[in-house]
Amino acid sequence: MKFCNQCGNPVTRMIPAGDNRMRHVCGHCATVHYENPRIVAGCLPVWRDQVLLCRRAIEPRRGYWTLPAGFMENGETIEQAAARETLEEACARVRDLSLYTLFDLPHISQVYMMFRAELVDLDFAVGEESLEVRLFTESEIPWSELAFPTIGRTLECFFADRRQNLFPVRNEPLEALRTHYTPR
């Protein structure tokens, strides 16, 4: 950030009085510009014993498989964001969304919030950000082709929890991103 979005004057990096972090501060109007983590909302869409995955058509990790997810927009709830991303990426409608996994990724300033959800029907298709969309059983999951560790961890938890039919909400920090997901 080089200029204040309130008055247009240059900003400098400094620790404002009463704060403990470097911030962009406008020397003219004294506006402190906070930078906060971005929220990624998504779904783990389920149909019977299968889950719906999308092959990414965009970077990062183009060509790798993911659950439908993306950045939350202003003016929507987390649940609305997760359902919207599922519709955009997989043209799929979901119901009975239930918060399932929360992952803190401080190294990239993101928080992932994934919902378990039931597919309304099998009327899904490739969306703008997907190359392919398909249902997978647990044994068919392309573990070495998953786009992000958050996706692999969500799937790993889901299949383990499904065996016990108990789905607690999980909150875990994830270390720096690895290239491929390795089940624990």
Automatic annotation (TrEMBL):
GO molecular function: hydrolase activity
Domain Nudix hydrolase: start-end pairs: 36-159
Keyword Hydrolase attached: yes
CDD domains: NUDIX_Hydrolase
Keywords noted in UniProt: Hydrolase, Magnesium
Gene3D superfamilies xrefs: 2.20.70.10, Nucleoside Triphosphate Pyrophosphohydrolase
InterPro entries the UniProt entry points to: Nudix_hydrolase, NUDIX_hydrolase-like_dom_sf, NUDIX_hydrolase_dom, Nudix_N
Transmembrane listed as a keyword: no
Cofactor dependency: Mg(2+)
Protein name: ADP-ribose pyrophosphatase YjhB, NUDIX family
